[in-house]
Amino acid sequence: MFKTQFKPKDDDLFIVALSVFSLFHLLFFLIGGFGSYYEQTHILFPYSGLFGYLQAPASYGAPAIWVSFFAAIAILWRPIRTWSLGLLLLGWGVILFLDQALLTGTRLILFWITFSLFLARFCDPKARIWFFRVLFFAIYTYSGLSKINPDWVAGHPLQDYLHTAGIDFSYLRELAVGMAFAGLLFDVLIVPALLWRRTNKIAMVFVFIFHLANLFLWELYFVSLLALVFTYLSFRDVDEGEIREGFKQLKSPLLALFLLFQLLFPLRYLVYEGRGSWTLEASYFSWWLRTNKNEIDTRFYASCDGKEKEISIWKHAHKNQGRFLINPRMVLQFAHHLEDEGVQGEKGERCKNLKITTKMKRSLNKRSPTFVISPKLDLLSMPIDSKASDYVLPLPPR
């Protein structure tokens, strides 16, 4: 049975799916302008990396894309599959750590699927399928748990998403609330339902409905198909006692460590002050997938010897880095980046007694736009590794 033996043909199915999705996504990089983006390192704003410590030099971007592209082809050849998976994993890792602003669900899922396939090669065949089941348990469950908040259950984010999708009628709020509860229940319950043989088939029908709805409603073409295909491959064949079988496979140290990481790492937001959806601390790798709707307007100002002027952001950052403008920590890093590059005064001289401020207004889940950071705060007075709670204003009540 599939649950007790990860056969070569099963491995081939996962590999072919990973290769196809990786190649399409990497072609998006190469054709869609991201190749030139990584080559134009002179206008890249270098983020300090994941958690403020891990960083890949911008010059690694283009090589990482090409290495990943050829590795995604090479994994189709069995004799070099393990080595090719290792190279693909390295490529995705560099791309993730290079640019936090591009650290989206698609790349994260591709990274973790590659990682799961790589780790599974060093385990007993009986344990291999469980790497994928653990991964999707974490993705669905933590996505569901993140929805247990007042904004989501009141339907505010979905109301905005529906309106953006061109859906607007008198009972829009009621529809949004119903969809919010349905989405929450789906995420929390779907993996247990898939693992129970009696509910597996009907649960799989809901998986198809859920992801196809995301595809057509929100135009999430790539990530919806990615999640749909790999969920199907991971849970398409179950037997009686499947969950009990999974616990037995935890005797594999690699699988046990993988489970522990996937269970604990997304919870790190609990140790930070403030609301995570507002400060965005610990949002990466936490599977907060479309739980919030943001509208943002961020501007930077330099005060040079008492004279203030607005700074053109895109003279110091690439246009494809625009996502950083929503993240308070990256805004602080950008202010220090401006100081490092040097801001010119009226006569073209390097500015002395420089102060950098920002007017960062954000609307979270249909709230009125409000300042995230005090417009009077000199960002250069804050250390680059400051906690968000040290400079982010509290989220005002609705």
Outline of the structure:
This protein has 15 helices and four strands. With 398 residues, it is of the alpha+beta class.
General description of the model:
With 398 residues, the chain is an alpha+beta fold. The protein folds into two domains: 8-279; 294-390, no CATH class. 53% of the residues lie in helices and 7% in strands. The chain has 15 helices and four strands. The chain has helices at residues 8-31, 34-39, 61-74, 81-98, 105-120, 125-145, 150-153, 156-164, 172-195, 197-218, 221-235, 242-248, 253-264, 276-279, 328-341, and strands at 294-304, 307-311, 355-364, 370-371. Strands 2-1-3-4 form a four-stranded antiparallel sheet, covered by helices on one side. The longest helix has 24 residues, at 8-31. The chain starts with 7 loop residues before the first helix and ends in a 27-residue tail after the last strand.
